[in-house]
């Protein structure tokens, strides 16, 4: 790709890894079910190309990751042994799970590794130093290896020790997943096949303002759904019942509509909505025009008329990025709008990119993940890219031109 990450930063293809100890920051932050088992191993699978690439070339692969939020202490159910087990099945080779991520025992194990071996360090966030980018902790992690590879797109927007501290000490390059994620978002933002559409939803407009402000100057079509549509309704003077309206964002939303008009961007709000008294299963629901939301109701989903209009508008697009569900899709009564958009993207002949944790969950729930061009493994990092913000994890890597 012309303006791909590899033009700017080194990747694993640029270095010789044979016999080298390679510390790979991966994102194994997988969801766990109630029994503590891995509920979805998508993120583990997404890291396989980089791990296989390194093993096949005779590197000694030292994997590290966080899992969930242990808040700086050891939490037994958040040990990475369960990830190591799954990895070893997927890779068809042993993956040793270590009891810590730094210290003499870890150093001893690493010293005994052979070419092609894979070990997985313990949950980085068992140490409070990880999240505050403690320099000693970063230096100790770096001391385990000769080369650092960042393949953890999901945390590349965080200035944590394993993301930005370690690369200060070692040659630092991008892994294949990080490269693919960054290149996907860069391409759609900088050189999309047109027409280019963005569908933005989710609960809060304040979470999405930076994204909306960045994409408005790039897209041809902007669809607004989710709870945040209520703030757009309020800015137009419609009644919004008991829906959450973010009064601090009203001016920003008005500016967005003005900018869309100025630039000839087609901005669509849902023409109708599903409303309910509560955002809970089993409550009675009604479809009403967006201009006639009853005083005692909350907007819970886009309506069928809006879904029809959104799907028709999307059908003409060649590139679509989607962030934020159209409704409270976790509740079956309010999932239809999100399902309709997912189905429209699944059949679209063009590039479809899903960014956002809940949006990816929704697409997975409908069984449509494989029909998309790309489902991002990062929520916050995808938002940062869509907002045009630099990722600290990427910036910390060696420049392509470095010796
Ligand atoms: P993502 O993780 O994909 O970026 P967000 O975190 O912005 O998405 O939003 C996801 C949440 O938005 C979901 O939990 C969903 O229930 C909620 N949501 C969607 N529509 C509404 C609505 N009308 N009212 C309240 N919450 C909503
Ligand atoms: Mg979210």
From TrEMBL:
It catalyses: (2R)-3-phosphoglycerate + ATP = (2R)-3-phospho-glyceroyl phosphate + ADP. It holds the Pfam family PGK. InterPro entries: Phosphoglycerate_kinase, Phosphoglycerate_kinase_CS, Phosphoglycerate_kinase_N, Phosphoglycerate_kinase_sf. Keywords: ATP-binding, Cytoplasm, Glycolysis, Kinase, Nucleotide-binding, Transferase. It is found in: Cytoplasm. GO terms for cellular component: cytoplasm. Its main location: cytoplasm. Monomer. Belongs to the phosphoglycerate kinase family. This is Phosphoglycerate kinase. It comes from Methanoculleus palmolei. The gene is pgk.
């Amino acid at each position: 790709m012309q303006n791909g990450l590899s033009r700017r930063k080194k990747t694993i293809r640029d270095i010789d890894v044979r016999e080298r100890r390679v510390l790979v920051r991966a994102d194994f932050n997988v969801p766990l079910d109630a029994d503590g088992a891995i509920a979805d191993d998508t993120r583990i699978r997404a890291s396989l190309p980089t791990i296989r690439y390194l093993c096949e070339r005779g590197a000694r692969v030292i994997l590290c990751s966080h899992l969930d939020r242990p808040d700086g202490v050891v939490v037994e159910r958040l040990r990475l042994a369960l990830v190591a087990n799954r990895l070893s099945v997927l890779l068809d080779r042993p993956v040793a799970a270590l009891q810590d991520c730094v210290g003499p025992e870890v150093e001893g194990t690493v010293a005994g590794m052979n070419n092609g071996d894979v070990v997985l360090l313990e949950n980085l966030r068992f140490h409070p130093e990880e999240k505050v980018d403690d320099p000693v902790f970063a230096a100790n992690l770096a001391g385990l290896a000769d080369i650092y590879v960042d393949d953890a797109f999901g945390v590349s927007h965080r200035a944590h020790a394993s993301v930005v501290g370690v690369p200060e000490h070692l040659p630092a390059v991008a892994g294949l997943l990080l490269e693919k994620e960054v290149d996907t978002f860069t391409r759609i933002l900088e050189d999309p096949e047109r027409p280019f559409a963005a569908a933005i939803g989710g609960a809060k407009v304040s979470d999405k303002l930076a994204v909306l402000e960045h994409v408005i100057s790039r897209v041809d079509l902007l669809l607004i759904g989710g709870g945040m549509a209520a703030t757009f309704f309020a800015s137009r003077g419609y009644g919004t019942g008991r829906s959450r309206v973010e009064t601090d964002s009203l001016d920003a939303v008005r500016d967005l509509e003005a900018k869309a008009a100025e630039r000839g961007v087609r901005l669509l709000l849902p023409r109708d909505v599903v409303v309910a008294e509560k955002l809970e299963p089993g409550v009675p629901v009604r479809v009403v025009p967006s201009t006639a939301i009853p005083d005692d109701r909350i907007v819970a989903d886009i309506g069928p008329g809006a879904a029809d209009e959104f799907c028709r508008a999307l059908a003409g697009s060649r590139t679509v990025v989607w962030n934020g569900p159209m409704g409270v899709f976790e509740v079956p009564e309010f999932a239809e709008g999100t399902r309709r958009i997912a189905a429209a993207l699944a059949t679209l002949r063009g590039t479809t990119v899903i960014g956002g944790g809940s949006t990816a969950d929704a697409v997975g729930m409908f069984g449509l993940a494989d029909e998309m061009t790309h489902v991002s493994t990062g929520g916050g990092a995808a938002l940062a890219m869509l907002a045009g913000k630099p990722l600290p994890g990427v910036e910390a890597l060696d420049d392509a031109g470095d010796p």
